[in-house]
Amino acid sequence: MKASIITIGDELLIGQTVDTNSAWIGAELSALGFDVCRITSIHDRKDDILEALGEAARISDLAIITGGLGPTSDDITKQTLCEYFGTRLVPDERVLGMIEAMLQRRKMPLNDNNRRQAYVPENCTVLTNAAGTAPGMWFERKGKVFISLPGVPGEMRHIMNMHVLPELTKRFRSQVIIHRNIMTYGTYEAKLAELLQDFENELPAAVKLAYLPSYGVIKLRLTGSGKDRNVLGDEIEKQVRKLYKTIPEYIYAENEETLEIVIGNMLKGRNMTVATAESCTGGEVSHLITSVPGSSAYFRGGVVAYDNAVKTGVLEVSEESILKHGAVSREVSEEMAKGARRILNADFAVAVTGIAGPEGGTENKPVGTVWIAVSSQEGTVAEMRVFGTDRLSNTRRSSLAALNLLRLQLIRR
User: Fold this and answer.
1) Last residue of a domain, one of 141, 171, 201
2) Which of 33, 143, 246, 399 has its CA 20 to 30 A from that of 137?
3) Which residue segment(s) compose the domain that 360 sits in?
């Protein structure tokens, strides 16, 4: 069974609002066995909506539409749906009662705009919305299902969970689709594809492999489709085991686990602590570590030593090292890590110093040059990485590289 997702709103097209609805709906439909074949974002314009509905009817069995159901004049989805399905708007007393009750709880008056939200296409099945004022609508025509939902994410998810997903589960016996995500770090996409060439060539027809890179992390998504969930699950598990044997040095987790979650679990499991000393990342490494609930159990603290005076005055990096080798060097990164571990009394310390850009590079140390060090009782290791010229990307990539170097040292403990 094929599905299309249509999101309506000029704010999506001009970048004012990020379309999170499509990602959530796509994941839920895929889990039910639907093949999501197209996601489309369009203007709040009648012709665009009609064209998108027609295209969805042509290529898919199910279309889910979000947006354009608000109380203002620019929300025209309901009127356009009436035109497409050859019907008219009629008042729904149950919806009106729910709107009145919600506004009363919020001590807000009911006005004509709110009353208009209680009008629905006459030939739809109304999907009540206890999370907001705009109801959802279910249409059927020529064996195809069209579902219109509010664009507000919380309201959309409420109606999906309460009405749409249970009904789709009952009515559609679709194929089984299973996704398995393997998280990797430490190489680049082209190299990983080269290493996995034989693995890909030997995959059965029912299983596909996708590469999803982001700031150095490459998510390998295995997707299997078939009719028997148990058989398909066994096949996916077999392929995952082959992946672990093929690229064991690059796999660090599964199913969207981040590096910061992985190292947090490792530190807790070993009853160890970590500190940070950061220059070019400006506290990003500390931010990632502390974004994990419970990180107070293993994170001691961090020093953002952006100025060389802080490197020497707080972390006790020698001025001679900075003069002789430069602030971006193996020597300085190692001294930063040692200093942070000492003054913050941690088992491990991670240090980062580099040239984030877009200025400040030289021929020998171009923009994107970063030195990362990890210090522990067993010694200090450091590595140099050269990223690109984009400042924000360099900050993110440097932070993840630092976490991965820490992970590798923890593995050896």
Assistant:
1) 171
2) 33
3) 259-411
**101 and 21 in one domain?**
yes
Instruction: Summarize pLDDT for 251-285 with one digit per residue, the tens.
Output: 999 988 999 999 999 999 999 999 999 999 999 99
Residues 320 and 206 in one domain: no
Is residue 90 domain-shared with residue 186, that is, in the same domain? no
328-343, pLDDT tens digit by residue? 999 999 999 999 999 9
Question: Could you tell me the CATH number of the domain that includes residue 32?
Answer: 3.40.980.10
Q: Are residues 165 and 192 in the same domain?
A: no
What percent of the chain has pLDDT above 90? 85
Helix count and strand count (H, E) for the chain: 17, 17
Q: Are residues 165 and 196 in the same domain?
A: no
For residue 41, the model assigns a pLDDT of: 96
pLDDT score recorded for residue 174: 62
Across the beta sheet with 299-304, the strand order is 299-304, 274-278, 348-354, 369-376, 379-386
Give the whole-angstrom CA distance, residue 117 versus residue 133.
7
Residues 248, 277 within the same domain: no
What is the number of domains present in the chain? 3
Q: What backbone torsions phi and psi does residue 69 show, to the nearest 5 degrees?
A: -110, 15
Q: Detail the DSSP E strand segments found in 110-187.
A: 119-121, 125-127, 136-141, 144-149, 176-185
Confidence (pLDDT) at 172: 81
In sequence order, the 6+-apart residues with CB closer than 8 A to the CB of 14 are: none
Query: Are residue 191 and residue 136 in the same domain, yes or no?
Result: no
Average pLDDT over residues 162-170: 93
Alpha helices (H) along 60-207: 77-85, 93-105, 112-116, 153-159, 165-171, 189-195, 197-201
Torsion angle defined by CA atoms of residues 195, 196, 201 and 203, in that order, rounded to the nearest 10 degrees: 160
In 3D space, the residue among 370, 378, 384 whose CA is nearest the CA of residue 410 turns out to be: 378
pLDDT tens sequence across 127-137: 999 888 899 99
Residue type, 97: G
The reply to whether 314 and 165 lie within a common domain is no
pTM: 0.75
Q: What interhelical angle do 391-411 and 259-270 show, nearest 10?
A: 30
Give the per-residue pLDDT at 173. 67
